[in-house]
Amino acid sequence: MFQRQVNILKSQSFFLFGARGTGKSFLLDKLFPPNETLWVDLLGGQAELQFAENPDKLSDLIAASNAKWVVIDEVQKVPKLLDVVHREIEKNKIKFALTGSSARKLKRGGANLLAGRAFVYNLFPFTAEELGDRFVLDQALQWGTLPKLFEFCSNEEKKLFLSNYVETYLKEEVFAEQLVRGIIPFRKFLKLAAQSNGAVLNFNKIARDVGVDNKTVQNYFEILEDTLLGFYLPATEASFRKQQIKSPKFYLFDCGVKREIENMSHLPITSSQEMGVVFEHWLITEIFKLNSYLRVKYELSYLLTKGGLEVDLVLQLPKEEPTFVEIKSTSNIQDSHLKSLMAVKEEFPKSKCFCLCQQQYPSVVNDIQVFPWRAGLRELGFT
Asked: 162 to each of 99, 113, 227, how far by Cα in Å?
């Protein structure tokens, strides 16, 4: 049994958003006992049709059930239900747990998002902490940490699952939900988005390669963000004397899904260069997830100057000096790995500078704090 880190407060109704396969239904099944809960699963085509034709049927079911909580799975399938949910919250004090892939379709359709009457939580693939003793870094880097993967023993099964997952998402979440008009250019875009993962985005180049306009590419990235398949990492707003690159980066939400989009998930990570790229991707997504779950409230960004000085991650809290984080996959940190952080330390002498890596013990090198990645996450407050 895995203990999820998302801290859901049952004092109020809530939305639980997450990409397909992140375990939303499984989590709610553990939170709400069947004898006290009315479940409405809109993934079943017949249920979706019935509620779309008659949303008020929900009120009849609630009245007949005497349930303390109502769980509606994939609520974006029937946005009109949210008007009934609103009424039941106000009139009868019923509490709701509402799951969905994202709020994008709800927002675009002008759906009732309950105006603060429901909290919002996001659910992601497993973190290392959630997996506990079952977490193996090399496996997480190669295959990712979607919950379903941990039901499989063979690499062949894992490869087939990820392949089906990518195809299913294209079909069910993006195309079937009418988030894009043409599936072929979006397929091309998705592969380029995977290849651009963690790099400074060049929207014009991606648009040319896909064969669409710049605005369409930006819309595609927004779809990935809104469906929780990825997130932007903006350039830092911290004032730096050297001229900075201001374009954002973009990270897909899971290493395994990213590698499968490129048809590489079945290939072991053998080179130190690839290891460095994948380790950085995984650790930044780990921090992104923990920042959400633990409500640390860091603003996440990166630093890159036109002279080539780059820091992987900048963490900013209100009215505090930024914290600069460099990520290295090596277990043997050298001075050469810390050049960017040493330059930043001269610019921001009061700031904290961390290097998270795979060495065994913490150390201090030229006033830079070097941590094994687990200890570094604790030091940054992600516990």
From this structure: 22, 32, 18
